[in-house]
Amino acid sequence: MRVLLAEDQDIVRAGLRLMVDNAPDLTVVGEAATGVEAVRLARRTRADVIVMDIRMPELDGLAATRRICTDPDLAGVKVLILTTFEVDDHVFEALRAGASGFLGKGSRPEALIDAIRTVARGEALLSPAATRELIARYLATDVRRPAPASSALDGLTEREREIVALVATGMSNAEIAGHLTLSPFTVKTHVNHAMTKLDARDRAQLVVIAYQAGLRGPA
Fold it and tell me: 72, 96, 110, 184: least surrounded by Cβ within 10 Å?
């Protein structure tokens, strides 16, 4: 898996490169110190995953993520956000911009490697409880967001709506399968169908759409 590192601090970027290159199935194909450079290298390298810092000069990580995730030529590129604070409104903005998830900068090396592999597979890094807290808090307090558009989910079957609601709680396919007494493969199929119908890049986008449409799973 090809990885692009976007981080403005040289010493942090060097540490990230060492961790990634030590993984047998990962390789660093580029390093960016600014958001502008991250976008340029994303187009040049076509990395599988971009590890993106939020705060960078010239163009911040949020804007860079938005440009990358809305570029049709970079449809297969996934963005993993690095953040100092796991519960941060910037994280939700990054997910809404198209990022596949986030990871705290204080995470252990193996957590970073696992996170890269997770988003490279097209899954979302949404398991931490902090993610659910963040999304719920943001949607409950940000008056600038549009009113929930429940019609966005009209094209889903009843089972797909049920599963999307569970995805929005942060449950994995295996957990949903156990909850609904279905096979993990069946759950994955329903999730993929829902993503296609809702034009969601991955599970992270599916969660955002579900919350914006007012869909809630069990507490």
Answer: 72
Using DSSP's 3-state secondary structure scheme, residue 6 falls into strand
115: helix, strand or coil? helix
Residues 6+ apart with CB under 8 A from 147: none
**Contact present, 173 and 118 (Cβ < 8 Å):** no
Q: CA torsion, points 129, 64, 117, 101, in degrees to nearest 10?
A: 10
Q: How confident is the model at residue 6 (pLDDT cuts 50, 70, 90)?
A: very high
Calculate the CA 114 to chain-centre distance: 14
Residue for token pair 């403005």 = 8
Q: How far apart are CA 149 and CA 200, in angstroms?
A: 15
- Could you tell me which of 203, 212, 51, 61 has the C-alpha nearest to residue 125? 203
pLDDT above 70: residue 190: yes
pTM of the model: 0.70
CA 137/CA 114 separation, integer angstroms: 27
């007494």: which residue's tokens? 181
The residue that leads in pLDDT, 35 or 89, is: 35
Sign of the dihedral defined by the CA atoms of residues 8, 10, 16, 21, in that order: positive
